[in-house]
UniProtKB/TrEMBL annotation:
<keyword id="KW-0496">Mitochondrion</keyword>
<keyword id="KW-0067">ATP-binding</keyword>
<dbReference type="GO" id="GO:0004350">
    <property type="term" value="F:glutamate-5-semialdehyde dehydrogenase activity"/>
</dbReference>
<comment type="similarity">
    <text>In the C-terminal section; belongs to the gamma-glutamyl phosphate reductase family.</text>
</comment>
<comment type="pathway">
    <text>Amino-acid biosynthesis; L-proline biosynthesis; L-glutamate 5-semialdehyde from L-glutamate: step 2/2.</text>
</comment>
<keyword id="KW-0511">Multifunctional enzyme</keyword>
<keyword id="KW-0521">NADP</keyword>
<protein>
    <recommendedName>
        <fullName>Delta-1-pyrroline-5-carboxylate synthase</fullName>
        <ecNumber>1.2.1.41</ecNumber>
        <ecNumber>2.7.2.11</ecNumber>
    </recommendedName>
</protein>
<keyword id="KW-0560">Oxidoreductase</keyword>
<dbReference type="InterPro" id="IPR005715">
    <property type="entry name" value="Glu_5kinase/COase_Synthase"/>
</dbReference>
<dbReference type="InterPro" id="IPR016162">
    <property type="entry name" value="Ald_DH_N"/>
</dbReference>
<dbReference type="GO" id="GO:0055129">
    <property type="term" value="P:L-proline biosynthetic process"/>
</dbReference>
<dbReference type="InterPro" id="IPR016161">
    <property type="entry name" value="Ald_DH/histidinol_DH"/>
</dbReference>
<dbReference type="GO" id="GO:0005524">
    <property type="term" value="F:ATP binding"/>
</dbReference>
<keyword id="KW-0641">Proline biosynthesis</keyword>
<dbReference type="GO" id="GO:0005759">
    <property type="term" value="C:mitochondrial matrix"/>
</dbReference>
<feature type="domain" description="Aldehyde dehydrogenase">
    <location>
        <begin position="323"/>
        <end position="588"/>
    </location>
</feature>
Length: 758
């Protein structure tokens, strides 16, 4: 129970002890009392005459949603002057002789001179209309709003200050949203020397300073300042090198160059920053963001409260390490240096990492044991994910072997000439392989992924950002340290970065100017979320691994049981494990079918019956809920088909284009299956589990792609390369090749350089 204005009430769990601002964005979700400041550019239309009604309605909707969650919302709003200007212009036009307007035509009406309108008069005319608009909008959400007009004098008079404080507390107690504005109808011009003077004094000379003053007076948790720019930039927005500042710390003002103020309103960005820092000193967290952008204004306030990376967050706590943006820039610079190394030097780094995996085995397994114990104690991981989290001596040995394969095969990966053409005499064109740039690999519960992906990035000369799951934090940390130790032998330690900040995956997916490719490795839900969140960055991967095995009438008993057992039971959590078994109808009630069922029962595989399979049985297993299911465990679906053609159609309809298998001794049937199934990997008489970069001889893989562009199937070094064109000439110009020019195109194919036999 807390007492405000002598009236006790029960606080909701969102409340917290005031005094210190939030240190991280992720904590903003705990904000209970919030002030939203709406700048003039947010509230008014582009012509500065009238309100942006759609934008305002969206803001009211977001504030209402947060209010109905149990938060205490307050709005500091501009807009009275603009609304009043619209009303007064209309009145002036009407008063300039209605008859003249009616008889002189619309064109003359438009040309009528409208006198310059005094701002105080506009404010007086607009305040009532602005408040009526807010009341009408909030009523749609069953929320009451109340208007409070203040001036600077109200904060200097102690009695008025107490009255204002009590009024606001009383309104909040009654679940009313206070709408606060400076009383521009009577407010005097600001005194030139009454600027920010420490924690105890702030001059209310615009709505930025008013919002900051109210936020501190009311002990609010969060102040959201909405303007017409994305946030605070290190130089004026629009300049070539301007970068949005994600987190701003007290003392960073020297690193910022302020531009001109907003197109409307009293304050510019410098005023906002000063007000924000004053509020921060008073214990209120602050975010400055764009409230006018049509793509984000509909959810900007709720996104901020949810801790998403929107605008500039003001924090008193500087992180121990670099920001993720700085890490991405370091990875880009390190990747370019890495690509410039000799192939033997890159291979040497990977060989060194392979050695470290075996030399430091005990330390790695000890860190992994901590992760496993924490996961088991918290009970937050399912058994398949626990299996993926676990490392062992045999896993580390296999990793080391795979890394050495990558090193051996990477000798001519970067800079390899794949096409040479003589365009004309002394004008030769080459197409050569180059790194993609900066890769972001996001992975869950699989620490063995870190050295694999790092080795592939090193071999292909790419910078790398790694974002692992919290459940593998200890394992990832030591494996990353070993990776950087290996990179250090040639001075490219920064090429591989592990993101350890509180960065949300969705926020990472928005760094389109820093990241060139995202590769998710984890659950189908993770992949789908990343594909949805990625803004302007291509995503390589697959959302599901619904792999099929089709047993044909000409299949032999020995092959069928071995391949099915291996495909389903060897590692059921893998994305290349069997999920749906297709049986030819003629095999039902045969010894072969009985052996398949017996083997699955022995292996404790839970069987789900497809609709057709269930129709043949008197007592069938549980009917499958969906034929498009990835179980990731000792479960599978069995369905019946009439032919290989029907099997292909079923795979195309319900599969995920990952890996599909036919078991048959009929070569013609097998070739039909191989040619017609449109998946990344299609096998004949082989387990689905062969769909793997290491087993393909790629050394390792960054993932399996079901995309149809660039790379498909297990993605090794080749899938992490793109190309560029090199043209070598001697004073060549296009005009020489015109109809009356002196030169002719040859377009002759030239032999490629001899590849490294090693």
């Amino acid at each position: 129970i807390r007492c405000w204005s002598n009236i006790p009430f029960i606080t909701v769990p969102l409340s917290r002890a005031h005094g210190k601002s939030f240190a991280h964005r992720s904590e903003l979700k705990h904000a209970k009392r919030i002030v939203v400041k709406l700048g003039s550019a947010v509230v008014t239309r582009g012509d500065e005459c009238g309100l942006a009604l759609g934008r305002l309605a969206s803001i009211v909707e977001q504030v209402s949603m947060l209010q109905n969650q149990g938060r205490e919302m307050m709005i500091v709003t501009s807009g009275a002057v603009a609304f009043g200007k619209q009303r007064l212009r209309h009145e002036i036009l009407l008063s300039q002789s209605v008859r003249q307007a009616l008889h002189s035509g619309q064109s003359q009406l438009k040309d009528m001179a409208i006198p310059v309108l005094e701002a105080r008069a506009c404010a007086a005319a607009g305040q009532s209309g602005l408040m009526a608009l807010y009341e009408a909008m909030f009523t749609q959400y069953s929320i009451c709003a109340a208007q409070i007009l203040v001036t600077n004098l109200d904060f200097h008079d102690e009695q008025k200050r107490r009255n204002l404080n009590g009024t606001l507390h009383e309104l909040l107690r009654m679940n009313i949203v206070p709408i606060i504005n400076t009383n521009d109808a009577v407010v005097p011009p600001p005194e030139p020397n009454s600027d920010l003077q420490g924690v105890n004094v702030i001059s209310v000379k615009d709505n930025d300073s008013l919002a900051a003053r109210l936020a501190v007076e009311m002990k609010t948790d969060l102040l959201i300042v909405l303007s017409d720019v994305e946030g605070l930039f290190d130089s004026p927005p629009g300049s070539d090198d301007a970068k949005l500042i994600d987190i701003f710390y007290p003392g960073d003002q020297q690193s910022v160059t302020f531009g001109t103020k907003s197109r409307v309103g009293m304050g510019g960005m410098e005023a906002k920053v000063k007000a924000a820092l004053w509020a921060l000193q008073g214990g209120t967290s602050v975010v400055i963001a764009n409230g006018t952008h049509p793509k984000i204004s509909g959810h900007v306030i709720t996104d901020i409260v949810e801790g998403k990376k929107v605008g500039t967050f003001f924090s008193e706590v500087k992180p121990a390490g670099p920001t993720v943006e700085q890490q991405a820039e370091m990875a880009r610079a390190g990747g370019r240096t890495l690509a410039a190394l000799q192939p033997e030097q890159r291979a040497e780094i990977i060989y060194r990492l392979a050695d470290l995996l075996t030399d430091q085995r005990e330390e790695i397994l000890l860190a992994n044991k901590k992760d496993l114990e924490e996961a088991e104690n918290k009970g937050r991981l399912a058994l398949p994910l626990l299996k993926r989290l676990s490392l062992s001596t045999s896993k580390l040995n296999s990793l080391a072997i795979g890394l050495r394969q990558i090193a051996a095969s990477s000798q001519d990966s970067v800079g390899r000439v794949i096409r040479r053409t003589r365009i004309a005499k002394d004008l030769d064109l080459e197409q050569v392989t180059v790194p993609i740039g900066v890769l972001l690999v996001i992975f869950e519960s699989r620490p063995d992924c870190l050295p694999q992906v790092s080795a592939l990035a090193i071999a292909s000369g790419n910078g790398l950002l790694l974002k692992g799951g919290k459940e593998a934090a200890h394992s990832n940390q030591i494996l990353h340290c070993l990776t950087q130790e290996a990179l250090s032998i040639h001075g490219v330690r920064d090429a591989v970065q592990l993101v350890n900040t509180r960065e949300e995956v969705e926020d990472l997916c928005h760094l389109d100017k820093l990241i060139d490719l995202i590769i998710p490795r984890g659950s189908s839900q993770l992949v789908r979320n990343i594909q949805k969140a990625a803004k302007g960055i291509p995503v390589m991967g697959h959302s599901e691994g619904i792999c099929h095995v089709y047993v044909d009438t000409d299949a032999s008993v020995e092959k069928v049981t071995r391949i099915i057992r291996d495909s389903k039971c060897e590692y059921p959590a893998a994305c290349n494990a069997l999920e749906t078994l297709l049986i030819h109808r003629d095999l039902l009630r045969t010894p072969l079918f009985d052996q398949i069922i017996d083997m699955l029962r022995v292996e404790q595989v839970k069987i789900h019956a497809g609709p057709r399979f269930a129709s043949y049985l008197t007592f069938s297993p549980s009917e499958v809920k969906s034929l498009r299911t990835e179980y990731g465990d000792l479960e599978c679906c069995i369905e019946v088909v009439d032919s290989v053609q029907e099997a292909v159609e079923h795979i195309h309809k319900y599969g995920s284009s990952h890996t599909d298998v036919i078991i048959t001794d009929n070569e013609k049937t097998a070739e039909f299956f191989l040619q017609h199934v449109d998946s990344a990997c299609v096998f004949w008489n082989a387990s689905t589990r062969f769909s793997d970069g290491y087993r393909f001889g790629l050394g390792a893989e960054v993932g399996i792609s079901t995309s149809r562009i660039h790379a498909r199937g297990p993605v090794g070094i080749e899938g992490l390369l793109t190309t560029k064109w090199l043209l070598r000439g001697d004073n060549h110009v296009v005009s020489d090749f015109s109809e009356h020019g002196s030169m002719k195109y040859l377009h002759e194919s030239l032999p490629l350089p001899q590849r490294n036999a090693n």
